Amino acid sequence: MARKSRKLVVVSNRGPYRHEATRGHERWVRAAGGLVTALDPVLQKRGGVWVSAKPAKDFDSVTVPAPHLAYDLGHVSLKRAEQRGFYEGISNAVVWPLLHGFEPTIQVGEAPWSSYVNANQEFADTTLSTSGASDLIWVQDYHLMLVPGMLRAKRPKARIGWFCHIPWPPPDTFGILPWREEILEGLLGADILGFHLPEYAEHFRQCVERFTPYRVSRGAVQHRGRKVKTIAAPIGIPVDDLQALAIDPDVGQEVERIRQTMGNRQLILGVDRLDYTKGIPERLAAFERLLRREKIARTRYALIQVMVPSRTDVKAYADLKEEIDRMVGDINGRYADTGRVPIHYLYRNLSQRALFAHYRAADVALVTPLRDGMNLVAHEYAAARTDEDGVLVLSEFAGAAKHLKGAILVNPYDVESTTNAIHRALTMKSSEKRKRMRSMRGEVMRLDVHRWADGYLAALEGR
Ligand code: GDG
């Protein structure tokens, strides 16, 4: 007899959907970003509850048709000041840069640590009131690292998981955090701590050894009489749904339209949230080098850079936006001809259909972050290429590089070799392209998000 699975309660800062009704006009928006891309299909399939902060009016979201939600939404209401301190001040101005290894970018002291503690407590309280004793609770990401411990304090027997969507750095970097002990103690309230890569899990265990008295052995930490497992669980995408979207006839028409509009030049595509971890200026510099090096390049190649507005209230993001605007302006000013511009720069969210049309239209995808937990754009590009065409140029510092061996791997800090990699991708023979794309597509299918969730949740249930 099939086992009835336990109710799943997902807890994350950002929820999947927001419903807006202003002056009789209704719309649904879906949050952009990798976490929602991965977890929405999991909950749609399995049901359960998704607890998240009451959504603010944010930029990084896209309008979608009213969703048929197969799960419930629970909301945490944070006061505006608390939300700012917790989200902009601690999570995104300190924890995010530090866990990505951007030590000089951190801004300690702008917001009180208490805002993070209080916000985490609000999430824990709402989770407790939304869930029962036998439910599986799955906390997500770096905003909520104290929640597992807060839940454990109230429910010693609960099954609690946490998943880290971003990298985990070695102890010398992590140890810079003034609240390193509290964070580790909070996380160790979970039963399972998941990371994209074995090396991130290893770094985490090294941090526990360095900064806590707890014993680490064979992939686990002994914490106050309980065993906390640390596992590598590389995330993926809903491959079947996205492949179906990629071959939709409407998407096909859009592909034709994009190619014609771009004057049948070879297309290079970048798709990123606006974030300094994504290596956008370095990528623009590599493309500029190609334009400078080869006169013919401006008539043959074009770069489409889709940049989704993100965390616009954090200073480092506003500064980066200015830098990118300036670079795009300079490069286009220098290399455009009347009626032909080398960089097409879209600073907004595309619908998922339009995004997939761009994946299919692009001869080359440039995914060149300076550091990235996994990077799902790389997965999506391979999933979209059911025609086995297209080349992925991928940073060796994205988690995806450990899996997608068919990509051309680059060090994004090395601008010249990135230029060479772009050129190699643009001039690659069809047979080699096919071989590489086939290998990547095989791996993307193996890493399917439903498998990822099933594997993680089986570990959480102790099966
Ligand atoms: C974090 C980690 C990890 C982007 N532009 C548009 C759009 N997107 C969607 C993409 C993709 C998602 O956003 C971006 O996901 P990534 O994984 O690339 O990056 P992060 O948001 O930084 O995600 C990352 C991930 O969590 C999951 O664990 O892989 O390393 O940083 O799905 O398609 N979607 C639409 N329009 C856009 O213009 N509709």
Largest sheet data: 9 strands, mixed
Number of helices: 17
What global shape is seen? globular
Query: CATH superfamily of the largest domain, please?
Result: Glycogen Phosphorylase B
How many structural domains in the coordinates?
2
**Relative helix content:** 40-55%
Overall mean pLDDT score? 93
Distance between the termini: 16 Å
User: How much of the polypeptide forms β-strand, as a percent range?
Assistant: 15-25%
Q: How do you describe this structure in short?
A:
The protein is 44% helix and 20% strand.
Task: Give structural notes.
The chain has 463 residues and is of the alpha/beta class. It folds into 2 domains: 8-235 and 449-461, Glycogen Phosphorylase B (Rossmann fold); 239-446, Rossmann fold. Helices cover 44% and strands 20% of the residues. It has 17 helices and 18 strands. It has helices at 34-46, 80-99, 113-130, 147-154, 171-174, 180-187, 198-211, 239-246, 249-261, 280-293, 297-300, 315-335, 352-361, 376-384, 415-426, 430-446, 449-461; strands spanning 8-11, 17-22, 25-31, 49-53, 61-64, 72-76, 136-140, 159-163, 192-195, 215-217, 220-223, 226-232, 266-273, 301-308, 343-346, 364-367, 391-395, 408-410. The strands form 3 sheets. It has a 9-stranded mixed beta sheet with strand order 6-4-1-7-8-9-12-11-10, sandwiched between helices. The chain is globular and about 65 Å long. The mean pLDDT is 93. The structure holds GDP-alpha-D-glucose. Residues 32-35, 37-38, 62, 165-166, 235, 271, 273, 306, 308, 349-352, 355, 372-377, 380 line the site of GDP-alpha-D-glucose.
